[in-house]
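Researcher: Following up on the earlier apo prediction. This time include the ligand. It's S-adenosylmethionine, with the SMILES given after the sequence.
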Amino acid sequence: MADTAQKLITLASQIVSNCLSQDTSSETKTPKMGARNQVYYSALNGECPKSLVPMLTAMVSGALKSKKTLIKCAHDDGLFSLKPEELPTGCGSLCESITASGQVVGVNAELLVVLYEVLLGSRRIRGTSPIVKLVKSRKASLQKTLASRRKSGTEKQHVDRIKMPRFVRLNHIKTTSNEVHAHFESSLNLKFMEKPESSTATLLSGVPKGKYTVDPLLPDIFILPSGTNLHTDSLVNSGAIVLQDRSSCLTALALNPPSNAICVDTCASPGNKTLHMASLMRRDKSGKGGGGRITAFERDPTRLGTLQRRIGEQGAETFVKARGADFMHADVSENGEFKDVTHVLIDPSCSGSGLAADSATGSALTSEYDQPSDSSSKLAVVGGGASDSQKVKNLARVQVEILLHAMKLPNLQVVAYSTCSVYREENEDVVLEVLQKQNKFRCARAIPTWPHRGLENVPEFAKISPLVCRATYEKDGTNGFFVARFERISEDEKGAEKKKKKKKKRKEEGVEDESCTASVSVKKARVTTTKVKVALPPKPPCVTFSKRGNCKFGKRCRFSHETQNSPHHKINVDKSLMEEMDILNEF
Ligand SMILES: C[S@@+](CC[C@H](N)C(=O)[O-])C[C@H]1O[C@@H](n2cnc3c(N)ncnc32)[C@H](O)[C@@H]1O
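Model: Understood. Below is the ligand-bound prediction.
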């Protein structure tokens, strides 16, 4: 038992150490893996038993979130002043250095994890390492130090981690809604609770213990009480149901590919959205799918392995293929490999600033997939302010590039773009820039039934805000998320748009104002009416023909050719007209 506990502490310490070294390392072109993702991969790689994933997650996120508090407590308790001979053998140093102002630099990651467990986490201490022994020996005084800091107001009362409901997505490739209901009721002993009317109320108050329900807005999503441990569940293990945050399901729904769609996921691993797309393409059980397929790009070799494994686990290998390559190198030319692609999903690397724990507490939990760009600029941007982080700007530049590259695909009809970021730079600003830089795609309304749209009260977003979707913990009980849908502009739409622009330009140039336009059209209408209603006068006779019986212009002659007996010859033709006819006939 102590051995398992120590293994968990060691694994948590490794992940915390990775995250802390990323915090201080210089900017890298490819963002590193975030804490959650590292936990996730350690479970997939068998380093952490699935049943212990929730504990590992709590340890890692707790140590990272409460880093400052833990360091201050250890400092006030004198831990960092201990001489090497006062430390248990093999303990190593507790930090790299302490600055003149008392700032602790390079704190030992295992110390943070163990301190978290003793002071804020389970409050129990198991494990066998020298650091565990050290903290154990000072447990009482450390707890006293924390209590006195709180009493004096220097430390806030401990805020519990946000508890989001457990979301479960149905995989149409492997199961049906009825089977999942039966499984929850018989295997998990949960009772179905009426489908809620409003998502906000239910998701924030949570689903009571012993119950489950279905998402009031999004299809195929079940909601279970927060903390329900499904890591060893048989349907999860068989890939029939998938643990996936509600917000992360918005992208595939915004794309909504039909069963015959030819799809690309540009940034796919670990494949949640790819496989959600695949499931949607197999909603209709009447046939074996409509011939659609998905190519899922992933440039990171480790993540590619995970993607491949999950495609197999979820039964999608016949029509979903993982491609270990950078999408930016994909041939998007007229006759290229991807010329038939109709639907593209783009969920690129982002700041990950939308994690619920971040937006609600402002604390430094790392993102699902990538490091947050700048923990100091959180929250400010939720309301539409700006993040000044250079990393966010770099990410946004790449996001625009991926979108523009995809939009070169010759047969592409729909694009869904998403981020788990709250920053406008990665969301609405990206949409505006893409609309500015190409004229083949327009922004269309994504998931019309989703109630929460883009940032309000930002004048430049007025046109796109009602079209895009945002999700927040506060309103939707999810991580912070953003989704946009682009659709190819049809030829008809292009024509109408051109006309509109022309009209607008003329108006701006003052060529015609509203009243002037009206009078012109009336005039035109009159001219047309005159042409239709007034019968044309009969053609006058051809003089040459009537005189000599033939005409060199034949059918091309603009005068009528009549025989000597025809009534034309009896008409007294006006002299001036005759002169004109003569000239013409001679020509
Ligand atoms: C935010 S994660 C994608 C999460 C995924 N869509 C899901 O729902 O499970 C971004 C992933 O895209 C990969 N990636 C980023 N840019 C890429 C590119 N240009 N080509 C291929 N893969 C890329 C990253 O390595 C990372 O694994």
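Model: Residues 166-243 form a domain with the Alpha-Beta Plaits fold (CATH 3.30.70.1170).
Researcher: Noted. I'll compare it with the apo version next.
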